[in-house]
Write a structure and sequence with these properties.
Length: 421
Amino acid sequence: MASTFNVVYKGLKEGVSTEEFVDRFCTTFGISQSKAEKIATASTEVIIKKELEEERAAKYIKALEKCGAIVYVKENSPAAVEDNGLSLEPIEGEESGQDGEDNNTEPVCPKCGSTNIEGDECLDCGIYISKYLSNLEHSPVVETTEDESADEVKFDSEPTRQMDTNPYAPPEADLIESSDSSEPEAEKVSAGSGTGWLSRSFWHFKQNPFAWIGAVIVFIILYAGLSLIPFIGALAVTLLSPVVMAGFSIGAQEQDNGGDFRFGHIFAGFSRNLGQLVLVGVFYLLFFILIAAVFGGVFMATMAGSAPMDPNAGPAAIMNSMGPAMLILLLLGLFLMMFVFMAYYYAPTLVALDDMSAISAMKMSLKGCLKNWLALLIFWILASLLMFVAMIPVMLGLLVVVPMLQASVYVSYRNIFHQQG
């Protein structure tokens, strides 16, 4: 059995105040201020995390040093590792709700206690059990070392409680390389997946409809308000839209992990890889301008060489005056614009949830859309029909459909890039 390592806190770096450390520590790990203060003011060394592999321990060291802590790694020999009841690994049989003695017991949801489980999903509360247990497993535990008289400090293990202080702080799992943290790969899904995406999107909406509706309304108001500002407003909308879109996906993911979507998730993207999210908007704008400039320039040059056109001519007359070459050029420009949109579609979610760079996320988004163009086409046909129906009762149905479409980006992303139906 390989050696394991404890990450031990010794004190604060010179020039780092307790307040500074507490603020950085709470932001990084998402724990309460009082618990962070206990660590900062401990009179003895404190084990921040124990029995880690060397690579994971090194990542904790790096993160804690950024917070201003003096930390070191203490190796445990294989023989010295004892079962002290504090392991974060699930007890045998616990993941499926068994008691370890009766292997025929029905699986039980660890969140709501329901036995209505299909595969990895609880059909009553909607969580994915493996993700929920993974969140519990990665909740940090802090305990004192070597001085038995020192106070013991432990972190809450439930992710929803742990995030009360800072709901949008990066979770501890971001510091650990796990099987779920590798770069996603786009896979082809069935053409009929769109119906499942709509169904799951409605599940996300109905968990907290008022928060979803409120967030979407605020997004639309902000969008409309900024658009009224000449030039700067349109630029701000383009650059900040990926940040807001990422926030919706962050909230939807939290619902999958047993938490809840909150109104504040609309701003969650501002604390999750903000620079790369803004870059998504920058690249989208640059690609759009480049295509418009090239094809617009060719179009105008061609039109300038043709006979003068009546300025009062309508769209039909303009189309009739174009030759076949001009129509092909126009269609080619629209075709390339569609590629830019596909590169943009999943990029904010990939940046926020998979920590990808902007350009890598846009490449992966394009790849995912191209592999699943038929499924996405069918989905958008169904979504368009749903939008039409929603507009009939004084457009009140849009209060349901628009949030569903926001959630559908995350739902289809999860299906295509993480193979979760």
